[in-house]
Design a protein that fits this description.
The protein is α/β, with parallel strands linked by helices and about 325 residues long. Helix content is about 25%, strand content about 20%. The strands form four sheets. A five-stranded mixed sheet has the order 1-5-4-3-2. Helix 2 links the parallel strand 3 and strand 4. It starts with a helix and ends in a 9-residue tail after the last helix. This is Peptidoglycan synthetase.
Length: about 325
Amino acid sequence: MQISSLTDIIQGELLNSPAITSVYNIKSRAQKVSEGDLFFALCPEDIPTALKNGAFAIVVENDHKVLDNEVAWIKVDDLNKAIIRYIRYVLSQFELQAFYSNQISYEMLKLFKTSHHNHIKFISNNVSQNIKLLNILENHDTLFCMDQTLLDAIYPKNENFNDRNFVINNLIEHSLFETSFSYLNDFFSKLRISSLYLNEFLKVYYFFNKSVDLNRLKKFELFKPIFIDKYFNMTEYGRSDKFILVQEDESQLHKEIYYIKEKYKYAKTILISKEEMTIDGITNFVVQELDEIYKTLQYNSFNAAYIVGFQKKHVELLFSNNNSTQPLL
């Protein structure tokens, strides 16, 4: 692409008169830059690495010393907005179908996607990570994004994936996390999924024309409990009456907390978060570090603990490394 055209697309300002007039590819990671690439300098300290790897153009957010006059130096007001403008331009060259989906559907689509579904692409909430997607995009691909604002900015012609409510019959809730039910002529027996998210499941199931491996639901990590025994050790699924749920996305918090309150009325539920939160009937403990989670759970009685603002893999690691022989309250 010509430097002059790219500068116009991202609404930039050329800071010098470079010898180079065009670039081959776009990168946002200096380590991935090859000769002829344009580099979005999200981390200015990575500019020397990008130049060493052969960058032909550098996009910066503020005035920056021109380190190599043969290379194009382009200044923009906001790097993320510049990347969005570039992505929007590239996507406009393709015939695509784009959907906004909530977090549950998004992760379930990724779970069930196989090599037969290469036309399905996922847009990250991290804007710069989507640059590499542009290199594998093809006409008639289907895009999914969890961020409606971002999707509107890069591909305005989009639809809501979660626009349908399914009427479910013969629902049997074996537990908070396992259900049997039917829809039309299809019966589902003991699926490892909460009734809270059956609508999302069915939407994904029929999107894939029922060609999915339902056993994969065992690997679905959202609203998936971590069961712990009286010694604070992780135990097998369903082998304890105490469990922990970890949610990184606060937008799902109230929906899931109120579901637990409704379905698990006679149990004690506590909420652990980094900031104070007020939910009727739920005791909130504010912590900042992982080891504080351990102590909070160890010294407070509960049946269900809902942890928000921490990564599940870190919480699981905390329990995996536990060698306690002191029983929980």
